Amino acid sequence: MRLTEYKSYQLKSLEHSSSDDALLTVRRLGLQNYEPIWRAMQYIADHPRQGRADEIWLLSHKPIFTLGQAAKSEHVLDHGAIPLLQTDRGGQVTYHGPGQLVICLLLDVRKSQLGIRNLVDLIENAIVETLKEFSIEGQARPGAPGVYVNDAKIAALGLRVRNGRSYHGLSLNIDMDLSPFKRINPCGYPDLEVTQVADLVTDKTGLMQKVSTSLANTLLRQLHYQEIV
Predict the structure, then answer these.
(1) Is residue 2 part of a domain?
(2) Which residues, at least 6 apart from 1, have a Cβ–Cβ distance to it below 8 Å?
(3) What is the dihedral of CA 189, 181, 32, 214, to 10 degrees?
(4) What are the residue ranges of helices labelled H in 71-141?
(5) Out of 16, 97, 116, 228, which could bridge 21 as a Cys pair, Cβ 3.0 to 4.6 Å?
(6) Residue 179 DSSP code
(7) 229 domain-assigned
(8) Domain assignment present for 78
(9) Residue 26 burial (CB count, 10 A)
(10) Which of 3, 10, 6 is nearest to 226 (CA)?
(11) Rounded Cα distance, 130 and 31, in Å
(12) Cα dihedral 225→117→195→213 (10° resolution)
C-alpha cells in the first residue's frame, strides 16, 4: 500500500552514526481509514529487511471500534452504525475517531533491545510528560496500560511485535466527539470515564497540531532521535 502523506521528516539517531542505524522517518498521514493503515503496518513487520529505518506515523482514524486480542464481546454494548473490527493489537476494545491523535510506532525492537514492557513505559511516560506541557496532570496505572486524568482515561495503548518489529501504538484524545465511548466498556472496564485535552485547557487554538508535535518530539527524545523542527 502507498500511503498519502501530508508531510514526512527523516531524522538522525543521536546514538548511532552508521547509515543502517541512523535514520527514523516520521510521517504525518492525516485522517485515514483504519484497515489500510493496519495492513500497511503488518506488511512492514512481515517483510523485514536489513537497514529498514524505524518509522513513526501520526494520524487520526475515521470512526471505528477496534477489538484487541484480549477483547471480549460483552464489552461492546452497541456499536450501532460505527464499524467494528477485530485486530491483532494487544488490549481490549476502544474507539477511534477524528480529533483523536493516533501514533503508530514501527520500531526494530530487536535491534534496539527495547523490551515490550520498557516500550510501554516509554510511551506512557512520553504522554504524561506531554500533558504536563499543557498543565494537565496525567498518571499511568499498574496493570492498566494507558494514561488517566482524575480517574478518566485520556490515552490508550495497544501494541504488537512480530519478527522483532513493533507496530500499532497509542491513541490520545485531543478534541473529538467522546460519545461513542458510551457504546463500549473502554478497554474492558465498565463505566470507565474518558476525557480529552480540549476539555482540560482554555486555549484550544491549533490544539491537534500542538499536541501531536509535542508528543512526537517527546517520543523521539526518549528513543534518542532528533526532534521535529
Answers:
(1) no
(2) 36, 39, 40, 43
(3) -70
(4) 109-112, 116-133
(5) 16
(6) G
(7) no
(8) yes
(9) 23
(10) 10
(11) 22
(12) 0
pLDDT per position as a tens digit, 117-168: 999 999 999 999 999 999 999 999 988 899 999 999 999 999 999 999 999 9
Give the CATH number for residue 66: 3.30.930.10
pTM metric for this prediction: 0.92
φ, ψ dihedrals at 55, nearest 5°: -140, 150
What's the full length of the chain, in residues? 229
**203-221 burial, b if ≥16 CB within 10 A, otherwise e?**
eeeebbebbbbbbbbbbbe
The torsion region of residue 215 among left (phi > 0), alpha (psi -120 to 50) and beta comes to alpha
How many folded domains does the chain comprise?
A: 1
Residue range of the domain that includes 79:
7-222
Most distant CA atoms of the chain, gap in Å: 52
Question: Residue 146 has which C-alpha cell?
Answer: 494507558
Q: Which residues are tagged catalytic?
A: 187
Would residue 227 count as lying in a domain? no
